[in-house]
């Protein structure tokens, strides 16, 4: 592994499945080396998959099959900037339709409980608009959404 800083994500025996899903879903993502346990450990046996190295949109990660002790929560999320509605829809739908769940304001969770913010660049630009009234209209529109609708955000921004 080349990176000095790597995100370690805890899984309950499904690290390889998650890594494969991320590699198939997100651009610039891949599954790397799969490491097997050299001995028994609390969540598994010698030879079981202990860790998998992977990247998600060029971010180095390790999936650790650590067992059921810890669950993902919204305190950590991947925020993915999308360029258009088609990309927003594709990523959101891939996560939700693969056993995930919708949330609010562009957030969703994958089937492993990991949170994702599928955030169109148009939304970021709208809520940073120097016209504070336009920014507030866009923000208020976003607050009513699950998956972000770029056309609705732009319409709200325009007033």
Strands, count? 8
Instruction: Kindly provide the name of the CATH class of the largest domain.
Output: Alpha Beta
Q: Kindly, what is the distance between the CA atoms of the first and last residues, rounded to a whole number of angstroms? A: 50 Å
Which structural category do the helix and sheet elements fall into? alpha/beta
| Total helical elements | 5
Q: What's the quaternary structure here?
A: single chain
Give the name of the CATH superfamily of the largest domain: 2,3-Dihydroxybiphenyl 1,2-Dioxygenase, domain 1
Q: Which geometry do the CA atoms define?
A: elongated
Helix content bin: 25-40%
The percent range for strand residues is 25-35%
Biggest β-sheet strands, sense, barrel: 4 strands, mixed
Secondary-structure element order, as H and E? EHEEEEHEEEHHH
Q: Could you please say which CATH topology of the largest domain applies here?
A: 2,3-Dihydroxybiphenyl 1,2-Dioxygenase, domain 1
Structural overview:
By secondary structure, this protein is an alpha/beta fold. It folds into 2 domains: 7-65, Roll (2,3-Dihydroxybiphenyl 1,2-Dioxygenase, domain 1), CATH 3.10.180.10; 77-158, 2,3-Dihydroxybiphenyl 1,2-Dioxygenase, domain 1. Helix content is 32%, strand content 28%. The chain contains 5 helices and 8 strands, in the order βαββββαβββααα. It has helices at residues 15-25, 85-97, 121-127, 132-142, 150-158; strands spanning 7-11, 30-36, 49-56, 59-65, 77-82, 101-102, 107-109, 115-120. It has a 4-stranded mixed sheet. The chain has a 4-stranded mixed sheet with strand order 5-8-7-6. The radius of gyration is 18 Å and the shape is elongated. The model has no long low-confidence stretch (mean pLDDT 96).
